[in-house]
Amino acid sequence: MATLHIEVVSAEASIFSGEAAFIALPGESGDLGILPGHTPLISRVRPGTLKIRRDDGTEEHIFVAGGILEVQPHAVTVLSDTAIRAADLDEAKAVAARERAEEALRNTKEKSDLAVVEAELAMLAAQAAAARKFSQKRSSH
User: Fold this and answer.
1) Which end of the chain is more exposed for a tag (fewer CB within 10 A), N or C?
2) Is the separation of the CB atoms in 6 and 40 below 8 Å?
3) 10 Å Cβ neighbour count for 55?
4) pLDDT band at residue 88, thresholds of 50, 70 and 90?
5) Largest alpha-carbon pair distance within the chain?
6) Chain mean position to CA 33
7) Where does the record place the ATP synthase F1 complex delta/epsilon subunit N-terminal domain (predicted)?
């Protein structure tokens, strides 16, 4: 079976590096599914879950807080400021951070600050949703 080489890199570390049969992620204009031989592409990535399916059918799930995607026929690179393996997501921490961001939003007066806080709020909401989804999957197994 043909594979792609996948690199997922955050500001802190390489989160995933390996071969995969398929990758799905939230692109700027909608969800993207990428198979080996995909047309070259560069796109922004929205906050959400990146799914990597290996040859053996196992899957790796990684939360990304947005970023940049580069697709070449046999390689995919995702660069994100924040990327967290699904197993490491903590819903309680994400919800607490979202509550702090909502409080900051209520107290923000400057338009430029407002945009930054709203973007952070959207990312934290996506992170909390991903954490909730994966904690439900873990508890149902």
Assistant:
1) C
2) no
3) 12
4) confident
5) 55
6) 14
7) 4-83
Cβ–Cβ < 8 Å for 77, 64? no
Please classify residue 80 by burial: count the beta carbons closer than 10 Å to its beta carbon, then call 0-12 exposed, 13-18 middle and 19+ buried. Answer: buried
Which residues, in sequence order, are CB contacts of 73 under 8 Å at separation 6+? Answer: 36, 37, 38, 39, 40
61 close to 134: Cβ distance less than 8 angstroms: yes
Taking the model in full, what pTM does it have? 0.69
pLDDT value, residue 118: 72
Q: d(Cα 26, Cα 48) in Å, to the nearest integer?
A: 6
* pLDDT tens, residue by residue, 54-81: 999 999 999 898 899 999 989 999 999 8
User: Cα(35)–Cα(3) distance, rounded to whole angstroms?
Assistant: 8
The rounded distance, in Å, linking the Cα atoms of 76 and 137 is 27
pLDDT of residue 141: 56
- In the numeric block, the tokens 């900051």 are attached to 104
